[in-house]
Amino acid sequence: MRLRITEIYKSIQGESTYAGLPCIFVRTTGCNLRCVWCDSAYSFFGGKWMTLDEVMTEVEKLDCPLVEITGGEPLLQPGTSVLAERLQRAGKRVLVETSGERPIESLPDGVIRIMDLKCPDSGESERNRIENIAHLKKYDEIKFVLASRRDYEFARDKIREHNLGERVNSVLLSVVFGKLQPVNVVDWMLADDLPARFQLQMHKFIWDPLEKGV
Ligand code: SF4
Q1: How many Cα atoms sit within 13 Å of 148 on the Cβ side?
Q2: Domains of the chain, first to last
Q3: Which residue has the least CA distance to atom 5 on ligand 1?
Q4: Spatial separation of the C-alpha atoms in residues 154 and 158, rounded to whole Å
């Protein structure tokens, strides 16, 4: 079994409750969405085919207990679930970042899904697979990336409608870099008493926000 891979590298986890921890990133190639603010469009095309053994060898070389499979959209490739299971068997804690457009239940138990619910300004909110919410586990995380007050209200309403604060480990709110002031979102969250965790994309403050592979 093979996976189309854009890059494998070690950095720190930038957005989730694991933010700040050393983490190996396995970035798959290809995405079927086109969020207007996407910062990983370089992973849409190209990449190289790697066997699961080759991916495992690269991961072992980088030597870190936390591994995130990201994209692009990892769940477009059937090999992602198999890779996640192999990483678990190798003793890794495995995170999978997904747009939420593909079914998430194919991933093995214990794999932490960090699932987006796309907001209107992304241009892709019609693609949210709302059925995925029923498959989320207590250890999973949901992420809303906000570019406007309209996006915030969308997130707030979804959090309330689906009781997301009770359903998952963390509901994450972050802003599109340079589009929305963090202070505004924090003010709105506090005013609405929202059960969510505000976060900044840490890696964009540490390195050049336009640089890839960090
Ligand atoms: S789902 Fe992720 S990779 Fe795909 S276009 Fe949106 S932000 Fe980019």
Answers
A1: 10
A2: 2-206 (3.20.20.70)
A3: 34
A4: 6
Helix (H), strand (E) at residue 158: helix 149-161
**CB of 71 shorter than 6 A to ligand 1:** yes
Please report, in tens digits, the pLDDT of each residue of the chain (214 residues total). 999 999 999 999 988 999 999 999 999 999 999 999 998 999 999 999 999 999 999 999 999 999 999 999 999 999 999 999 999 999 999 999 999 999 999 999 999 999 999 999 999 999 999 999 999 999 999 999 999 999 999 999 999 999 999 999 999 999 998 899 999 999 999 999 999 999 988 877 787 665 655 4
Q: Which residue(s) pair with 98 in the sheet?
A: 115
User: Does ligand 1 lie within 6 Å of residue 31's CB atom?
Assistant: yes
What is the 162 CA–ligand 1 centroid distance (Å)?
A: 23
- The CA 128 to ligand 1 mean position distance, Å, reads 12
Q: How many other CB atoms are there within 10 angstroms of residue 91's CB atom?
A: 7
* Ligand 1 neighbour 74 (Cβ under 6 A): no
How buried is residue 144: exposed, middle or buried, by Cβ count under 10 Å (0-12/13-18/19+)?
Answer: buried
38 Cα–ligand 1 center, Å? 5
Token pair recorded at residue 77: 């490739």
Ligand 1 atom closest to residue 44's alpha carbon, by position in its atom list: 3
- Residue 72 CB–ligand 1 contact under 6 Å: yes
